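Researcher: Going back to the complex we discussed earlier. I've cleaned up the inputs and rechecked each line, so this should be the final set. Can you rerun the prediction on the complete assembly and write out the structure?
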Amino acid sequence: MRRCFLILAALCSIALLLALCSAQELRVPETSTAGDDATVSSTGSGKGTLYLVGPGISHKSDVDLGEDIHIPGKDLHNAGAYLVIVCSSSCESGTLYVTPAKPYSLAFIVHPSRVPVGRNNSISGVAFPFDQYRNLIRAPATVNFELNAGKESLLSQSDRTQQGAAWFRASSGRSAGTVQVNASVDDISAKRAVQQVASDPCNLRITGGRTKNGIEVQTEPVHDCAGNPVPDGTIVTFTGEGPQGKVTVDAPIKQGIARAQMEAKGEETISVASGVVMGNELRIGAQP
Amino acid sequence: MKRILPIVLVVATAVLMGIALARPGSARGIVGVEAGTPMAGLTPKASSPEQAINNLLGNVQGRHWDLAFEGVSKTSGIDEAAFIQDWKGSDGSLRAFSALEGFEPRPLHITNDAAEMRVHLHWATPVGPMQDVRDIHLVREGDVWRAVWPKVQIPNVPAQVIPVTYLRWDLVSGSSEDHWGSRNVDAPNVRIISMNAVDTAEGAVVMGEVVNEDTIPAFVTVNATLVDAAGNSIDEESSFDKIDHVLLPKQVTPYRVDFPNISLKNVKNVRMDEKASLVPASADPVIGVMNQKLDSDAQGKAVLHGDLFNQSGETVNIPHVIAAFYDGNGKIVWVADGYVDQALLPQSSEPFAVEIPKSMTAKIQNFHVVVNQYSLGRS
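Model: Rerun complete. Updated structure for the full complex:
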């Protein structure tokens, strides 16, 4: 409530000052670049007062009428419309529109951070160019996107920003590993990394035999359909069916292979699965 | 007249004390006093099988191990240390954190010299109340009845070195100075692969399975919301402990969400919501589930029982079994779980049993068991 009252009072003061503006003339440039000095010329003579009201700033200083009034660049960091008011016996005003400076940094968001190999349109990224004062550059700018998996180039394209944003979509490659994603505007660039990981296991096969403690089964090296080794730690479920009942072991892949021990004396039929992928079946005879 | 009232009060107090001492098994939940504390020489003589069981379990409840062991026949072949371990648990097992809250003995068969008693034991545990049933054989030795306690098979783990290719995922958070979007690591990708909703006597139950499709471990919770015909939410519940929360890559877990006192008749839709977050995890220990069979227990209840075999070199303090049951078409029809109250030592086995409702037994054609585990001092 108190804040509203203060804002209302400030607006009333500005309106009053504007109403009094009639005597001297003020020439304000239409645009300026963020961080650059701006010059306002005025007519008349004697001392006056400059009021500068803009995004995130309000400033008051004494000026000499009839001379050029310099507004320092440090007061014009934020892009947007500024109201310039000069008062002596009366007030005069003009609007200065500050535009962003040249690209200085690039906010670059890439999704996802991990992606299985061989997925269509699974990698996306969006880039936002900013100037050195963190103003979003909404004027069209050309952003170059590059995706490289080792020496393989997955994507190289240029896009114009629309309302300050440019984006891409790309498919993941066929090899597991890191994909370097690069976005650049002029000499500014930002790099991100996407981890390409193996997809679901393919041709899951097990071998095994009897040991003195029961049955030991193990997978052959587990790969996806593109030949990438499935990461260690992936769970492989071994299920045995026999006269003693059912046996289940969830074993993690270690060094490319998952192993399990099963306590079973009778004939066993052992199957294997990883996630929703099934493998082969293995029959092992009863303990002699 | 002045003397009659104090005399009546003293006599009534003595009678009440006598009744209380004669029924140690019924002493429950006494605040500030150890339940069932006997006074030396005042424990009633075990002149009947019921009295012998009451004395023994009353002393177990009060943790008077010497007195309790006096109620065990010397022919049992069990020493006091093993008897105590049988009741107290060890190695940070669930039993070690539990207390015998009460018991209900029932005679099964009694002759002049031997008796068979079935005791329902009520335990208070950190994971909620648990029921246990034990059949205890008693013999008459002179004029006293004593329990024949079966020899407890305490796993004897020999000193050994078990090589482990240690596999673990750690989580490193990026520093706060990183640029926007430069160090994001996505949450794991998990998917509900099956879901079914059934009505039970206790209420509606939503169950199914969820898989971690990612290459990193995930901490998973499943929430379900029941929605009526008007689109309003009736109730929202989570799977709580009826799920294996930490899923390694490609691991599948059953889940069950209970909605007590709600009928599916009023439900038009069920909204499922699975949440997954990054979590540090270890691929060990590996626990095999051996000798799984559908059977009936001593009370005639349908159970899935089997043995858990710890294939790793570290102790699993509290094993937790979650089982999914399927019909002939592979549709999930029930999810049940159970805790094992003994610790699972390295390279050793412990039996487990999971109860199945009678209404489900006819439908069940297949099942899948996963083992969740809690180990002290580990994330």
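Model: Worth noting: Chain B is about 15% helix and 40% strand.
Researcher: Good, that matches what I expected from the previous run.
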